[in-house]
Structure formats: C-alpha cells, structure tokens
Design goal:
- By secondary structure, this protein is an alpha+beta fold.
- Helices cover about 40% and strands about 30% of the residues.
- The protein is globular, with a radius of gyration of 18 Å.
- The termini are far apart.
Length: about 210
Amino acid sequence: EETRVRTNLSRYLSPEVVDLVVAHRADLKLGGERREVTVLFADIVSFTPLAERADPERVVAILNELFTFLTEIVFRNGGMVDKFIGDCVMGVFGVPASRGDDAVRAVRAADEMLRWLDVGNARWRAELGTDLRLGIGLNTGVALAGNIGSEKRMEYTVIGDVVNVAAHLESLARPDQILMTRETMERGAGEFPCVRVASQILRGRQNATEIYTL
C-alpha cells in the first residue's frame, strides 16, 4: 500500500517531498521558511508556430515526452520539479533539503537538458520539420519554501524574487542558450566555463542584473 501511495504521489511531487509526506514528517500547514535555492526555468523557444502546424494530439504527445526526460534530468541531479507552465518546466534545487552544491547541480542539469535535446531532435526533426530548442534561465537566492494555497488545496513551492529573475532570464535566452545570474555563476559554474554577456535592468527591477552564459 505504501508503494502504491508513493508511486501515485511521485506523479505530482518530487521524491523528497513524497518521503516527507509518507513518513509524516512534512508539516502540512500553509507557510514556509527561508531557504537558499537555485531556480531553473526551461522553455521551448518558438513553440507557438509549432503548435499551429501540428495536430493538438501530437503536440501534447511531444510535450509529454519532452517533460518526461526533463523531469528525469532534474530528479537525477537532486532537484525538484515545481510545476509545468504551458511549454515550460520549473525546477528547484535546494528544497526540501539542501545538498550543499545545489547551484552546481542546477547548472549541470541545464547543460544535460541541451545535450539530451540533440538526441531527441534526431527523431522529432523528421516528424515536425523543425528542431525543438530550449531557452534556460537560472538564478540563485533566498526564497520562501513551503506550502502555498489554501487549507484544502496546497502545493509545495518556492516564492520570491529569485524565481522572478530566473523566469526573466529564461525569456531572454536564445535557442540552446543557458543564462544565469552572477550568484549562480559564482556558486555553481565552477566545472563549466562561463562568460559575462550583459548587465541589464530586468523588467520590474531597479538595479542591473549581471548575466552570464555557459
């Protein structure tokens, strides 16, 4: 029975959160605590034209296949899949427990996503007449991690400016490009060569954000 419950819950939650819930160690109340996290957004670039050309059933099938592999990559690197937003996946590293090298794991996952996409495109190219390309944004900072929603329907997620900045970087990323803030670069890109590409004031912010890419 526990195996069945774990399997069903794992379709909605990360393995770490499932462990907390099943073991009754999760505080199932609204609210949370401040944690340093690294947030990853990976979005399909120019997805709208693809959705217009292909049958909706085929589009959904491709999205499901893509999300299956992206989810596995996040999990394999110790992250949590927070949510799917249309054709975008949001991953978080550092919750519900920090592994000490969460930013490194996030950058590693982002790089692995692009490498895997080259393999997937070998087949999708023939079906779609084009390649699928990802734009990825990463940011590291303090967020409130915990249960958000209502007493009857809640989700474990992270809230804060760190999330907004990661989402902005993803929207700026070109196809096959990984953009990250200085905070992520300093903590997590040691094993990857990085270059500074811009210092830009992102929408809704007053101070410029230093942006780096692999």
